[in-house]
Write a structure and sequence with these properties.
single chain, 454 residues, alpha/beta, 12 helices, 24% strand, globular
Length: 454
């Protein structure tokens, strides 16, 4: 009888173990919320004082404590070996190490977030410096300081790197929104052109810059928008997507003409809004609202490089027109995506002025620190350090500026050229003819851009 009971207990234990293993294997999300997170939270609360002390986040406070004082009574000589000591208790103020107050831990799919109240004299930068130490103490992949507010910061702990493998669809089904990848906190990376109209995409060769461009094309292709390309590498980068492009410039002369057309279109939209008393095109009636235009510039340095003085006038016209499009585009639904391997002040003042208008910043791995400075230098210095630390074996990983003013590590989903080309062919019928788009039935004249859609 005893053997039967032991056998049943063993079978039950084995069944429970197998069930727990299957639960963790086939539904890790619920396993994390129900089993793993509560244990992690208890451990984090119990060790928070020691973690804060080790990371130099504690402060000394004066507190009343019951202490033991040693008072000599007999034997006044300092060298006397037979000193009699009487112990008694008394209340006195002593220095006590106090850790910052930690709030309620809230679980996320990849970890947890917790709000911490800053001690007197502390600033969020103190927690940014201690983030790596806190991550090692909590045995997590990383800890980020997010959502700093007066007197408080939020610590975002991530158990594993969500950027190891990214599987999302670039299509969102919403106008002028693209989902090119994932952020380091596990949420989708959404590029909303209406919220952040212009983007600067910097990255060295094989850093993932072209893959991000493919994801944007695939995400924008099914939308009722016009795509315009500038590719001064002879058109080798953007020509495969020609069926979905309304116009493509492959030389500087064509670029000047195409930019003049864009500026003219902006002026026409400006007049249309003025005639109807609208501040921007989104205030117009839907039947009068013009088609949004997304301008893709593959290599911005080629637009500003000057081989001899004869090109000086064309470069000046190019820089001025691009700057006008950047300044006026948001209100009139013309958006810029500027890509480049090398972006520096040596390209001329036009690049620096243009950069100031590009609120969306995306920095992949770069070969020189000045490109990283031009892309992220006016943001948090920690973002610059993170961009410089991107390893070469992680193509697609980048630092992006969020619409909330924070920066994040992100990774674009891999979209092959074949997939992007297939999307361009599938939705070629959505590409408006350039002549119709700019209010003329005639195609652009020679040297004023290459019309792609009939």
């Amino acid at each position: 009888m005893t053997n039967v009971i032991l056998a049943l207990v063993g079978l039950a234990a084995a069944a429970v173990a197998a069930g727990l293993w299957a639960w963790r294997k086939f539904h890790p999300v619920s396993w994390w919320y129900v089993v793993q997170f509560p244990g992690r939270a208890v451990l984090a609360y119990l060790t928070w004082h020691h973690v804060a002390s080790g990371c130099s986040l504690t402060r000394n406070r004066r507190r009343w404590r019951l202490t033991l004082d040693a008072l000599p009574v007999v034997g006044q000589a300092a060298k006397s070996a037979a000193t009699v000591v009487q112990y008694r208790r008394r209340m006195r103020r002593v220095d006590v190490e106090k850790s910052p107050r930690i709030g309620l831990m809230r679980p996320t799919r990849l970890g947890w977030r917790v709000r911490v109240r800053l001690a007197d004299g502390q600033v969020p930068a103190d927690y940014e410096k201690a983030a790596e130490g806190i991550a090692h103490a909590w045995r997590v992949h990383s800890v980020r300081v997010v959502d700093p507010r007066p007197g408080r910061v939020t610590l975002w702990a991530t158990m594993r790197d969500p950027l190891t493998e990214v599987r999302v669809s670039p299509e969102t089904g919403e106008l002028l929104k693209v989902r090119p990848g994932k952020l380091e906190n596990g949420t989708d990376w959404i590029m909303d052109f209406r919220t952040m109209p212009h983007h600067l995409n910097a990255g060295a060769t094989q850093s993932g810059k072209s893959t991000l461009m493919n994801a944007m094309i695939k995400g924008l292709a099914p939308q009722p928008v016009a795509l315009v390309g500038f590719d001064l590498k002879g058109g080798v980068e953007l020509t495969p997507y020609a069926p979905r492009l309304s116009a493509l410039a492959t030389t500087r002369r064509e670029s000047v003409g195409l930019l003049e057309d864009l500026v003219g279109e902006l002026e026409g939209r400006m007049a249309l809004c003025r005639a109807h008393g609208a501040r921007n095109v989104w205030k117009l009636p839907e039947d009068l609202r013009p088609v949004p235009i997304v301008v893709l510039v593959d290599e911005v340095a080629e637009l500003f490089l000057m081989a001899d003085k004869s090109e000086k006038d064309e470069i000046a016209k190019t820089g001025t027109a691009l700057l006008r499009v950047a300044q006026l585009g948001r209100a009139f639904a013309v958006y810029l995506v500027i890509c480049g391997q090398r972006i520096g002040s040596d390209l001329g003042p036009g690049v620096t002025a243009l950069r100031a208008q590009l609120s969306g910043r995306i920095c992949h791995r770069v070969n020189d620190p000045e490109t990283a400075n031009m892309t992220l230098g006016d943001m948090d210095p920690a973002a610059l350090d993170a961009a410089r630390a991107i390893p070469a074996e992680t193509p697609g990983v980048c630092i992006v500026a969020g619409s909330d003013g924070s920066w994040y590590r992100a990774r674009s989903v891999y979209v092959s050229e074949e997939d992007a080309e297939a999307a361009a062919r599938e939705y070629a019928h959505l590409a408006p003819a350039w002549g119709d788009l700019i209010g003329s039935s005639a195609p652009p004249a020679s040297g004023r851009g290459w019309p792609m859609a009939a």
